[in-house]
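Contributing new records

If you add data, match the layout below exactly. Sequence lines come first and carry their own label; structure lines follow with theirs. Keep one chain per record. Anything else will be rejected by the validation script.
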Amino acid sequence: MNETITKMQKRLKKHLDRERYEHTLGVMYTAGALAMRYECDLEQALTAGLLHDCAKCIPGEKKIRMCDKYHLHVSEVELANPSLLHARLGAFLAAKRYHVDDKTVINAIACHTTGRPEMTLLDKIIYIADYIEPGRQELPNMAVVRRLAFEDIDECLYRILKDSLVYLNSRGIPIDPMTEKTFLYYKKYLGKEEA
């Protein structure tokens, strides 16, 4: 691993609780493995994996204040559930606090919770790595999803989006419209239009 990533890692550790930091390392290494599998830039994958949750441990009210201060848009869904802001705020902090100037990395951090239509390979890798890293609690279909991650990245992405929507709906948790948009995009893209 290069020196820049090692420095970021030391700095980041001060801003996350132990559990979140361990999750972050799991995502970073899983992103690295997926990058090697799909011939994606390894440094980009490690950097985005490391910084994807850099804003996660900031309290909700402070996230909203910071977004306001830095003129980052906050939707109604995000106001009601400020934890959703950690992706957009994290992308901003990756650039400002960790001096990441690679737009591909910043975009992958920004969309790692909701996805987006027409995701780049790096976007998909970070989204999936966040879901399947080894320390992640066992979710329904996890074994299938983990296998798919290394066999067919688009199929894996679709499966995670589908399972996430089922989970959120079953619990009555507000769904970010972008998650639904992403799901519908990949459903069509993969020809999953069920009769």
